UniProtKB/TrEMBL annotation, chains A, B:
Cross-referenced InterPro entries: Metallo-B-lactamas, RibonucZ/Hydroxyglut_hydro, RMMBL, RNase_J_2, RNase_J_b_CASP, RNase_J_C, RNase_J_CS
Keywords: Exonuclease, Hydrolase, Metal-binding, Nuclease, RNA-binding, Zinc
Metallo-beta-lactamase domain segment(s): 19-219
Keyword Nuclease recorded: yes
The keyword Protein transport appears for this protein: no
Entries under SMART domains matching the protein: Lactamase_B (SM00849)
UniProt GO MF annotations: exonuclease activity; metal ion binding; RNA binding
Protein name: MBL fold hydrolase
Lineage start: Bacteria, Pseudomonadati, Pseudomonadota, Alphaproteobacteria, Rhodobacterales
């Protein structure tokens, strides 16, 4: 290793998955680079993979060990998968957090909730304002996305210019916020771009992206035709959509009521940051009760089927005094994120049972994506003409497709999933190292490693059920024949009508006298022997091998 | 109630959900109707709702109580959601099973596996052959679908003619099996149709359905361009697709190898039933190892992401000696059923990591649905012109949309979800009763009711983890201070570094002396007291309230 300076890129989250974004850039001699962090996001757990977990955050062990080399944290925008972990992780990194004003409102709240110093958040103006930290000069270049003030980062180092796209789309008329500014991007490209780290979410979508400004017309027509109450749901953070929906409601003689904590918080933040102007006057849920339903429009949270959000509550019954009925209309102005289909369908079905007309994209054109589709990705490639393209913000198949697209256009496309360190500088840029990265689960207040086995054990309980067995070894080291058995998540009665717990106790009473003294003296061996007896009986009786917890109480001579 | 005869319809599964089809028709005086059963299908569980369950079957308690009135069971086609429960449930109904030959092969195997008399399966020829049982005359009218010999049932009674569509699409050139025969359907409609019970799966899909015969060309072109091994997956039962895929492989100089038990079983059944002719010669997986990869095509199971199927195995590593690598191609000639998205994406990502080109419908036109799209549903409505249309085979939102479509066309559309009994005859047909129906889970070999709480308890274990506590009450009714604690699915060590199980034991040792004697004497009260102590401590230490199993051993005086 020489002491020459190098420019490196290392994704710790968000590359090889969608969610939990966390990227590192470094510049300096190998192993001594100064570092900046881009985004500290969360991912959301599901029953299939992380039951009971509150939120998934990046594994930042590598960063934490190098904390003294971190010059700053940059947050591209205020979506949870980019800013959501800043409260959970800041205390382990303790570097200043740079972001734009709307994003800062959210970052500050998260730091405060976690008991950290909100003064660490430094509000930054967009391009051409520049932040210089260590060897890095960073500018926030506005992009359009589905939240205000989303930004790409233009990162200049002595090793070259990197453009980190963040989440973006090309929208020349985004209703709220900054339109795509081709002149700006051509200016950024002018002196050469070493590497473009680019959003890959929609690389499989072949038609050009559509503009937010195409929505007011069809949504207005839909509401104009509604006879009862109108309810619309979308992501709370999609403030442009909230405005489109609310404006369409008002234009059709409806008062607007926002429901759901996140929704009100986002609108307040939008007004506070100055990005949301002319949002119609809204009624409180209570005041809205006095409005005839044909003059009312609710805009609510829960477009992804979240069980605790307003949409799900309205599906189940009434929410804050409002109840939907035959002839009302419910609009999903949103896309269902893969994995949420069943939860969203559950709400649509519950609403249909109430006689509500449920409208979604299968009925017309009521949503546009916040991510660049394939032709728009190509347009950005063509403007920036980077030496290297590294796809991020995608599952592995998105990264591969995007890298192949880059190759087909004469760029160097490098697939770098989480933990892959890429040198961007030098004569032969490419992968230089692999770092072990896992994921961290926030489970209640405990941090649990994804590989710790804790959650795997919970899934085993869910799949197999549990038999708990209490045994007593008396003062003379004799294992008593009586055991106490409890079942969890197993049928109490077999198909034959017998009590399963009693059968297990009887079976153990018969087997225990045959367990030899050496086994009785050894906790592990005794547990294993009892587990085997219980599992074999259950396999015979109910066709299942349950988990078995054996609790051995050893009585001491008084 | 008079003794006039009535014609009734009662769905027990499949109406208000997709899967687990089971419908009842009855004719006779109210409460004394003779009955026939149409389909006995299963639904598949998921981690989100039924962890560890093997399969979900209809709750047939209502039918079982009226077993003496059941004249026959009819199976429309051999998909698992129509025939899958025949082995599990036949013993409780014991009526002859009528179906066409290809379906019979599967029904017979299922009866045999369950130890029932396979002779109960009566192979029936299609229209105009008729089966007369009790007051019913039933004809199997061929429809196109994604499996051979799918049939609608034309059910004639003195109360009128009912057409039960089964799963169907309109395909005038289905590659394998019977084409849509408009003349036949006009003939069926000629004398008037009282009720049309109709598939609703694709009611939200607005473009006309596409024919299986449109696929050979694009699939052939795709394979012609492949450089390495080609693997394709689809539903094993979609024999037309298997033939399309295999023919395209052979036409491009490739030997064909089928992988996965279900796939081989289906092809064998297709040949045996005479519906599959000219299927190319296939190689065994072992012999296929000798074929150069550019001359080989594997057709494999697992298009829905099933972890144990061939597709998943090839994603993880090698399967039967075959391993995919850079430059190979993997085609999903299938649609992902809602709920399976994450599992399918897992395989696609694993394959992408190996450098395999994963092709699906986002790349072109490689799949057609087996269900009638909205315009095709309308075409069937227009041919049959039924007095009543009752949507089935759909979630509630599908049923509602389909009923509204019927209304908009001047028919009487009745939404009848599982348990809704509809009279089809008389002057004012409509809902006449509601029957309590649940679902039954086959869990190992045990039948568990969906409302029994067993599976709900397993989900609680998955979400909250478990603390098992063993306590001893001695011969003098004194609760010993020592307890024995085991954790399952909880972090062993708190964020502060303490051993959680030990903390619980210490906390209990402190609390136990304060538990009064009356509580100690009462199992329920003592359990509740201990549970509260444990949950409060855990809430403080790890921010979670776990499930708690308390095992109280009461020692008896010797």
């Amino acid at each position: 290793m020489t002491d020459r300076n190098r420019l490196i890129y290392l994704p710790l989250g968000g590359a090889g998955e969608i969610g939990m974004n966390c990227y590192v850039y470094g510049y300096g001699p190998a192993g001594k680079e100064r570092l900046i962090v881009v985004d500290l996001g969360v991912a959301f757990p599901d029953m299939d993979g992380q039951p009971g977990v509150d939120v998934i955050i990046p594994d930042i062990a590598w960063l934490e060990e190098r904390r003294d080399r971190i010059d700053a944290i940059f947050i591209t925008h205020a979506h949870e998968d980019h800013v959501g972990a800043v409260g959970h992780l800041w205390g382990r990194l303790k570097a200043p957090v740079y972001c734009r004003r709307f994003t800062a409102i959210h970052a500050i709240r998260k730091l405060e909730e976690a008991g950290h110093d909100a003064g660490q958040v430094r509000v930054t103006l967009p391009w051409p304002e520049a932040v210089t930290v260590g060897p890095f000069t960073v500018q926030f270049a506005p992009v359009s996305h589905s939240i205000p003030e989303a930004s790409a980062l233009v990162i200049d180092t002595p090793g070259g210019r990197v453009v980190h796209s963040g989440d973006f789309k090309i929208d020349r008329d985004p209703v709220v916020g900054e339109a795509f500014d081709e002149t700006l991007w051509r200016q950024i490209a002018q002196d050469g771009v070493t590497a473009f780290i680019c959003d890959s979410t929609n690389v499989f979508t072949r038609h050009p992206g559509r503009s937010e400004s195409q929505l007011p017309e069809p949504i207005g027509e839909l509401i104009a035709g509604a006879k009862g109450m109108v309810v619309a749901t979308t992501f709370a953070s999609n403030i442009a959509r909230l405005k489109t929906l609310a404006d369409a409601g008002v234009a059709n003689g409806r008062s607007i009521c926002l429901m759901g904590r996140a929704m009100k918080r986002m609108v307040t933040a939008g007004v506070e940051a100055g990005v949301l102007t002319n949002f119609p006057k809204t009624l409180s849920p209570e005041d809205a009760l006095d409005v005839p339903r044909e003059n009312l429009m609710l805009i609510v949270t829960g477009s992804q089927g979240e069980r605790r959000a307003a949409s799900a509550a309205l599906g189940r019954g009434s929410y804050l005094g409002h109840e939907l009925k035959e002839g009302d209309m419910f609009l999903f102005s949103s896309k269902t994120i893969p994995g949420n289909e069943v939860g969203v369908a559950r709400i649509k079905n519950a609403l249909a049972e109430k006689g509500v007309d449920v409208i979604d994209d299968s009925h017309g054109f009521y949503h546009v994506s916040g991510h660049a589709n394939r032709p728009d990705l190509e347009a950005m490639h063509d403007i920036l003409r980077p030496r290297i393209l590294i796809p991020n913000h995608g599952e592995y198949r998105h990264l591969r497709e995007h890298a192949q697209l880059a190759l087909s256009k004469g760029m160097t496309g490098i697939i770098a999933a989480n933990g892959t360190m890429v040198e961007l500088s030098g004569n032969a840029p490419g992968i230089v190292d692999y770092v072990d990265v896992s994921k961290t689960y926030l489970d209640g207040t405990a941090f649990v490693g994804a590989l710790d086995g804790v959650i795997r054990d919970r899934m085993k309980l869910a799949l197999n059920g549990l038999v708990a067995v209490a045994l007593i070894v008396d003062e003379d080291d004799v294992l008593l024949e009586d055991s106490w058995v409890q079942l969890r998540g197993l049928p109490e009665v077999t198909n034959g009508g017998a009590d399963l717990a009693e059968m297990i106790e009887d079976d153990l009473a018969e087997a225990i006298p045959r367990i030899d003294a050496r086994t009785v003296m050894d906790d592990d061996k005794l547990e294993e022997a009892v587990r085997r007896i219980v599992r074999n009986l259950c396999l015979t009786e109910i066709g299942k091998k349950p988990e078995v917890a054996v609790l051995i109480s050893r009585l001491m001579a008084a």
